[in-house]
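Hi Y.,

Following your request, here is the sequence exactly as I used it, all 136 residues.
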Amino acid sequence: MDPAEVEFLAEKQTVVIIPNFSQDKVYLIGGDVGPFNPGLPVEVPLWMAVNLKQRQKCRIQPPEWMDVGILEEKKQEEIDSPIFQPMLNEHYMEVAQLLLSCATNDIPKADDVRTYIKDIWDIRIAKLRRDRKSVV
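Below is the corresponding structure, written out as tokens. Let me know if you'd prefer a different format.
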């Protein structure tokens, strides 16, 4: 799969937003979304959250796994294990990249989150390279 296809799949995941506008339900092919009321959380697909954020129509609540404490534990788990550990989200890199690029101000300690995600990625790549050398 090419990176654009993976990002497209990741954008189907849902996130919680806090809208600052009112609107009835939106009827989409993938399911209904809403209603939207100012200050009340609503779950929407990631692509919609990013679009609304870019138009300054909402705040995005980051997923639970984007907490610095959880990412720190995951990093240590990856360091301690000789094999890959299951990730907290199937598309963690794509979701993190999208949210950190458009909603940095909505993510507590965004720089630390970015660093931990990069560290986890680097650890996993190092394991992949190590394992590849042992097979060859």
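The first strand starts at residue 14 and ends at 19.

Thanks again,
Q.
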